[in-house]
Structure formats: C-alpha cells, structure tokens
Structures
1.
Amino acid sequence: MDLNETQFLIDYWPTLLPVAVLEVSLMLVALKHIFQHTQYRFGSRVMWVAIVVIFQIIGPVVYFTWGKGTANDE
C-alpha cells in the first residue's frame, strides 16, 4: 500500500466505516434468516448463502426482496 492509498483511507474512514458495518450487519441478518428457515420462493439454501456472501450489500437485499419465503411458508 503506497502513501496515496493510506492517505485515502485516513481521509475517508468516517464514511467507509458505517458502510462496512452496514454491509456486515445485512449479511449476518440474511444468513441468520437463511439458516433458520427452510422454504424460499425459489432456489436453495446453498444458492442463497452464496449470493449473500459473494454479492455483499446487494446479495442480502436481493434475498429479502425475492428469495425470502412468504409469511405463510414460514
């Protein structure tokens, strides 16, 4: 890491930290929900875990929007 990258991180850490906390929080909540429930609108548990982990912020949003089963399924 050169000096420019280090300076960038020092300058923007107040912005990057909340984004990182949001990203990890969304992923953990989505993973908890995936492992507690067995029925999904489509796909399998393995597919949703992969999507949530690989696609970081967008993966959990996609899961809660399209993958999470309805209230009747749970």
2.
Amino acid sequence: MNKLPFGRANYTLMVIGVVIILLGFIVMSLDTEEFGFGALGLTIGPLIVMGGFILEFFAILRRPTNQ
C-alpha cells in the first residue's frame, strides 16, 4: 500500500512549479530600471511567478492515477 499522499507525477509537477516560481523571481531581479519599475519587474516576472503557482495548485489537486 502506498503511504505517500501524492503520486510521482504530482511530485514532479510540484518540483517544476517551484523551479518556475524561482525563475520568475530571478527574472524580476534582472530588471535594470530603478526600483524594479521596468517591464521585467512589473509584468513578465510576476506573470511567470503566477504561472508557477497555478501549476502548483494543479499538481496538488490532481488525483494520482495509481489509485
């Protein structure tokens, strides 16, 4: 009997989501405008972070296929 609450695919998606979230924060830190008010810091980076959180929610709510 499997004691883990999630399946292998869920954990893989969670790791990918964390990497995407970190990538979004790195993109936000690359903004060269003062106080991060450029396109990278205000638009592109937060959209990448939001995509990572959406993937995390999907990974948590996805039902494992082995049950």
